[in-house]
Amino acid sequence: MKRAILAAVALAAVAGAAKAEDGYDLWLRYRPLEKAVIARDVPYASAIMAQGASPTILAAREELQRGLSGLLGKRVPLATALKSGTILIGTPKDLAIAKLALPLEKAGAEGYVIKTVGRTTVIAGNSDVGALHGAFAYLRLVQTRGMLNSLDIVSAPKIGLRMLNHWDNVDRTLERGYSGISIFNWWELPGHLDPQYKDYARANASLGLNGTVLTNPSGVSAATSLETAWIKKAAALAGVMRPYGIKVYLSVRFSAPMEVGGLKTADPLDPQVRQWWKDKADEIYTLIPDFGGFLVKANSEGQPGPQDYGRSHADGANMMAEALAPHHGIVLWRAFVYSPSPEDRVKQSYNEFKPLDGKFLPNVIVQSKNGPLDFQPREPFSPVFGGLPNTSTGMEFQITKEYLGFEIHLVYLAPLWQEVLRSDTFAKGEGSTVARVVDGSLFQRPLSSIAGASNIGTARNWSGSIFDQANWYAFGRLAWDPDLDSKTIAEEWLKQTFTADPKFVEPVTEMMLGSRETAVDYMTPLGLAHQMATSHHYGPGPWVDDAGRPDWNPVYYARADENGIGVDRTATGANAVSQYAAPVAKAFSDPKATPENLLLWFHHLPWSYAMPSGGNLWESLVHHYAHGVNKVAEMQTRWQAMKPFVDAERFQITADFLAMQKENAELWRDGSIAYFQSVSHLPLPDGVPAPAHPLSFYKSLKLPFAPGSPGRTASPFALTGK
Amino acid sequence: MKRAILAAVALAAVAGAAKAEDGYDLWLRYRPLEKAVIARDVPYASAIMAQGASPTILAAREELQRGLSGLLGKRVPLATALKSGTILIGTPKDLAIAKLALPLEKAGAEGYVIKTVGRTTVIAGNSDVGALHGAFAYLRLVQTRGMLNSLDIVSAPKIGLRMLNHWDNVDRTLERGYSGISIFNWWELPGHLDPQYKDYARANASLGLNGTVLTNPSGVSAATSLETAWIKKAAALAGVMRPYGIKVYLSVRFSAPMEVGGLKTADPLDPQVRQWWKDKADEIYTLIPDFGGFLVKANSEGQPGPQDYGRSHADGANMMAEALAPHHGIVLWRAFVYSPSPEDRVKQSYNEFKPLDGKFLPNVIVQSKNGPLDFQPREPFSPVFGGLPNTSTGMEFQITKEYLGFEIHLVYLAPLWQEVLRSDTFAKGEGSTVARVVDGSLFQRPLSSIAGASNIGTARNWSGSIFDQANWYAFGRLAWDPDLDSKTIAEEWLKQTFTADPKFVEPVTEMMLGSRETAVDYMTPLGLAHQMATSHHYGPGPWVDDAGRPDWNPVYYARADENGIGVDRTATGANAVSQYAAPVAKAFSDPKATPENLLLWFHHLPWSYAMPSGGNLWESLVHHYAHGVNKVAEMQTRWQAMKPFVDAERFQITADFLAMQKENAELWRDGSIAYFQSVSHLPLPDGVPAPAHPLSFYKSLKLPFAPGSPGRTASPFALTGK
């Protein structure tokens, strides 16, 4: 049999070369383990037994069979009776499971127990979905070469709603997506269900995600998707997701009662409007009985909202919440709101929502971006976390790398997210971390949620690059357990995605862990933010002061002049520090107590400011840029050494992208240094190369071919008839 | 070994289920043949020997090895010495080939000889590319279960330039594409070459195509792609295509000297403009030494052109031709021009180009759509074919089914193309078929060309549906030999794509062959045309009279009123018949001599007109609509019976699409009948069901989710910032 498999692999290498290792399999690759590991594991996985025939149990059984057959290199059969080495999966409805003394009380509604009983491995949940999550956890264990002989695992998710947010438009374009177009082919729905939908559900379920918002909260997609024809399309997708424990949500546009319903107003206090939302909710639940709810972007960046009628965010959210409540639906109301006002943009979200704390209905979650600005390479945590003790506050992370080099730059985001989740808000004294706000435990909230803006598209490797799969993976793992460690997650992902060989896993883990700081260094070191070029955001634009609104201008965020750089957000300035709890505010008010990596976020300092880490501010800033580029070069060298461990296709795309990242990092370094030097008039420190071109060159650069460039997504490409 | 393979296949079915038969392999599937065929073929394909190390010979060798190893179920080795059963591939530069008496004089520059000599199979060309084409032809032969024991084949392409035209924009959107977005990822070029590019080249080379126009001739893509950064991107693609004998072309915008060059005019007689094009051509050839040339859409549908400066199409084309001539480049100048003038739109192309006949430089080809209108389900051949004896006249077919149901409807287009190619222009007496115009033989033209507007995109199956792959395939085969038969091509494609089992091939061939007439029946029977809904073109709109211009209105093309229907294009009307040679004009002038399937194209007739095939015109029209729908239902039934022969994924997408086609065919039938009955006021013939809804219903329908719908591709989806 082994000979057969080897022959088959050799043959496949010839005949199916085009399909080999293109990244589609993600971390569910299930390629044969090393021989010794197979020999070790086989006695514990000789067959699979699953009572019950719910679609979820069948999905779990199918996944176990697919996974183990691949990993062990032979077809693992289904069993009808328990024998030594059988994997038994199910819930206590299965008597064989019920009679075991499993600690299921700790597994919650969606968690699982995995326990070795004799040579039987029991995978159990209180629900079918819990058992499914257990099956994926077990397969992760096998893939990461865990020992199977004495398992005793209990796991339950700490956060209630764990979801992807797709910024996918109904025409399949992606806002801030760098991986093709939306995998949701609305045109062909509901008539045809692409097989990829199931693989999407599998991948998400393997991480324990339990929700997906199918459409973009910006733009008319969020109205269109409420039309009956579209709800039927969403219902078809919901049918694919359901066995995998994933609920479908839709973004909705506040003005939908007008655009879809033909009403003359969308005033949330208007009885007709309120009735329209109730009727629409009833219609949706008729077609999608387990529909999750609505995601709303209102009164932000031109989107309509309750303030258009002199009403508050609470008025708007509660109207929808009332419509959804009878069906147990949820409103996710985005806290990302700001307007071109004299108030510091980073203060506006807190200012809007703080007075509304406690005014939201129980089925409303206020969903805030991790930082107070906009998914920058580094920001402090948003003061909304900890600031709203009487509001369920959800976390919104950005998996798609809008500000971190698109699909090209290798940036592992778990360290960023971990930094945020472990930040201490001090809202209820020390230990009041953002993670404890988000999981609801700090304020004993009935609801808790975490969302990631998806990086998934039609690219064969899903995310545009292989390493961006790690960000999808890491988001899902942190959603299940926000206390997980970035390093653990990276190792898990690498072992499943490539190989468990420590000669590969160790250096590449290290590379991943440092990659985010590297990007911060060459893009926005020392607490700088929003220094990117307009619209496309790929490359530097620190000189930009004409982006349409002051708060879209990089100069607004660096305030660099001949005297110094940075934004004074202490009490002598914008006083953003006042939005944080006292111990945090105190630290952020003092340059010496502010973490150096957030220094310029909170303080305007002279170029000569003596840095605690040595040198003055000017020198330190320039060194960070240079260091970032050097680190990318190191990543390139390191990856080249990994060639023996990686298949050709996945090796090459990563090598190519690292070369492109290097080029763009140099652009960031040189463009930024050229600009800041033009205002500081200071010489470059020794060892830092002068920019290759004058500042005018960097200013003149356009990237018309970068996703998100103006002109690229605009009307020149409209239909002309042919 | 066989046991090993079977085991491997079984295992693959479990482990790699997600990848199984998604259509990516096209007709180059190379799955194991039936056992008996393998036993029969193995002695003739035991090894592969190829002297020479040109990239093209290496590509041929690689393809033979990949293909035969897959087909024969064992790795076929490379040989270093000729033994019994070896396949010998190369050119006469290889002495072992030179000493054989092969009829290479008939193979031309790109053709091939395949000949059995003893047990050696010799595949030879006068060029490496000829040998490559031979390798693909040989693999086609093996896949279609041809006998290998006494091969004696010579083949050469009849048409010089055989190319795909991509209407792909530089932002990767497709104009009239229904298969995702462009496979050309301009953003990542030239830094990363997606492996799919090579598979694209392989597929095209397997058909003998030798050119590809990478970008859309409409819109700013055709200017952008002339910027230096973009030429470098095109050069990277050219590098992938080159070993496969495929030259890269670019669409160019006539105003590019202004948009890219910063000049104040694009007047083709302006010396600066002429110099700009020369310089641009020089630049391109520095980066792409074998660059093919330019495709131009000028003074058509709002595109800029020489007439903007009072110059002629010849002035414009010749300017570019002069720039390209030193490099042996070609200008493909589209004849698809019309303006909102009182003249019948179908006459305008001929009217424009007839006076210019003989005025184009030798490296200019005037490229005309097959019909005088616009890729309708049926049109007569364009009088441009045969009308320009002193001009190289190229054929433009549309592979993408803009007017034939997108990727959803199963419509095999070879019968349409065959109908056109076999049409007799009588330009030089009987036998002056369109095919003889296009291959250049009728008028002894130095250049000949055929182009197909591509249906390829990022959809995993390339074309959006499995059966649309057949249209790509058929186009390529007809480009090589326009005298090939639709049936032969369908059988070839089915055997390679699915199975050679006659219980599958025979009924499905029949289904394919009838499918185009079926679509004509439910869309535009009896010579009707342009009855589709505005913009998206998916569904009926015979009532539309407000599409912006008279010649965009379906009512302009049916002229239906209570007295009758059809357009009088005889001498008593628009006199379009006068553009054809006398015998053709005479036939088209007489309703009795006009083919019934073109009747209403040329004649306005009373509803009571007695049809030669029986009944009156009204009854016949209605019966055609009804018949079309019935035939789709038959296709559904037939496909269901094919389930045992087709893998699950490809079976299901086809079954789903047939169900959607049925629904849309009913819409065409009911909407068309409802409208025409509203003007004819006549009762429906017995047996034809009344439309399910009143006419107002069909008029009210919008398909905002159909590709090409207004609002779907327009600005509501522009960036909003997030």
UniProtKB/TrEMBL annotation, chains A, B:
Homodimer. One of its GO terms (biological process) is xylan catabolic process. SUPFAM superfamilies: (Trans)glycosidases (SSF51445), beta-N-acetylhexosaminidase-like domain (SSF55545). Residues 26-138 form the Alpha glucuronidase N-terminal domain. PANTHER family: ALPHA-GLUCURONIDASE A (PTHR39207). This is Xylan alpha-1,2-glucuronidase. It is an enzyme of class 3 (hydrolase). Belongs to the glycosyl hydrolase 67 family. The keyword Hydrolase applies. InterPro entries: A-glucoronidase_C_sf, GH, Glyco_hydro_67_aGlcAse, Glyco_hydro_67_aGlcAse_N, Glyco_hydro_67_C, Glyco_hydro_67_cat, Hex-like_dom2. Residues 1-20 form the signal peptide. Residues 142-462 form the Glycosyl hydrolase family 67 catalytic domain. GO terms for cellular component: extracellular region. It catalyses: Hydrolysis of (1->2)-alpha-D-(4-O-methyl)glucuronosyl links in the main chain of hardwood xylans. GO terms for molecular function: alpha-glucuronidase activity; xylan alpha-1,2-glucuronosidase activity. The active site is at E301, D374, E402. Gene3D superfamilies: Alpha-glucuronidase, C-terminal domain, Chitobiase/beta-hexosaminidase domain 2-like, Glycosidases. Residues 464-687 form the Glycosyl hydrolase family 67 C-terminal domain. Transmembrane segments: none annotated.
